[in-house]
Structures are given as structure tokens and as C-alpha cells.
Amino acid sequence: MTLTDPPAAAGPAPTPPAGWEDILAPGERILWQGRPRAGIDWGRILSVEAVFGLVFAGFGLLWTGMAASMAPPGDAPALFSIFPLFGLIFVAIGLHQAIGRHVLDAWRHGRTWYTLTDRAAYIATQSLGRRNLRCIETGDWEDLRLEDGDPGTVWFARDRHQRPARRRNGRMRPARSWTTPVGFRRIDDARRVFGLMRRQMRE
After folding, report:
1. Which residues, 6 or more positions from 158, have their beta carbon under 8 angstroms from its beta carbon?
2. Cβ(77)–Cβ(126) below 8 Å
3. What's the CA gap between 88 and 101, in Å, rounded?
4. What is the tens place of the pLDDT at every residue in 127-136?
5. CA angle (179, 110, 145) in 5-degree steps
6. Residue 188, C-beta contacts closer than 8 angstroms, at least 6 positions apart
7. Contact 199, 193 (CB under 8 A)
8. Is the pTM value of this prediction over 0.70?
9. pLDDT digits (tens, 9 = 90+) for 68-91
10. 73 exposed, middle or buried (CB, 10 Å; 0-12, 13-18, 19+)?
11. How far apart are CA 130 and CA 115, in angstroms?
């Protein structure tokens, strides 16, 4: 794969979503604007997590069926009559792991806008009547990389998370830290955006 920097002049950008027109600093130039491609990313569904989710959901269905086929004693408390329903919890968790989270991602992508300027990368979201804007300045970009494809993704930052040590069921669980990537996900012109961002990091 050969990557070359795009020409300095960027093409016309789409009109920003209503309410985000005045977020730029004086003199800040927009280099690119776009949105994630709509729809479910079917390529990500075929994963280890999805297989695990289907197995988990299958276990829940098996639990529910077996529990429902067992007749409780005549003097059993009312709790026994709803005991089979506990298996539906496993079904719901498994289906979310296999499919639900991808549907949720698609819903979020439909309410996301991206903007790249000569000073920062912006990720704007709107959901449940609330608008949020995240600004990551050029100096804070790290691990810039291109996930090539149709559509593609440009990663340029990482969110850091930390869970403190805690006691559970009489046992102490150690502290845990991890990171999640941040970027312009599922965009149609990922190569061009990657080239623009490489130039910004060098200047």
C-alpha cells in the first residue's frame, strides 16, 4: 500500500451540523468534514466476542427450556414459577455481545460528525437531545494510524481508563488499566484524511 500526501488545497467541506458553526477559533481553517458511513459494520460481527455471545445466549435458552420443563412441587414458593425467566438474562447479555453492541454503534454513528482543522480534530455527537463536542488538538495526537478499507478508519488518540483495586466476595481484585482508541471511524476518504493529519503533525 503506497500512501502519498494529498494536495495542500482541500475540497469544499459539507455544511456543518446546525449548532456547530461557531466552534472554531479565529483563523482556524477547516481541512475536512465528514461522517461515519451509516449502517452496521457486518465485518466486525464475525469476531471472537460475537461467537462467545452466541454461546452465552444459547446457554441461556437451554437454561430457560430446562427450567420451564421442570414442574415445581405443589408447595413450592411463588419464586419457583419465575425461575425459568432467569435464563433470559443470559440470552439478553449474549445477544448484546453478538449483535446488540453493533446495532448500538450504528445508532451512534448516525448521530456523529467529524471535523479536521489545521489545529485540531473534532468529534461532535448528538443523542437523546444532548450535544457533545470533543476537541483533540494536534499536539495531543498519538499513534496516528490508518485502518485501510471501504470504509476506513483513522486512529489518532487513546482514552485511558483505570479501575482501582477493590474487594469482592472476600477477595481483593487488583487494579486494572486499559486504553481504547479514538479516531474518525468508518469514513469514506480515510486515506486522504490520514495524509492531511500526517502533514499537520510534521508542521
Report:
1. 142, 143, 179, 180, 181, 182
2. no
3. 18
4. 777 888 999 9
5. 40
6. 34, 37, 150, 151, 152
7. no
8. no
9. 676 555 555 555 666 666 667 777
10. exposed
11. 19
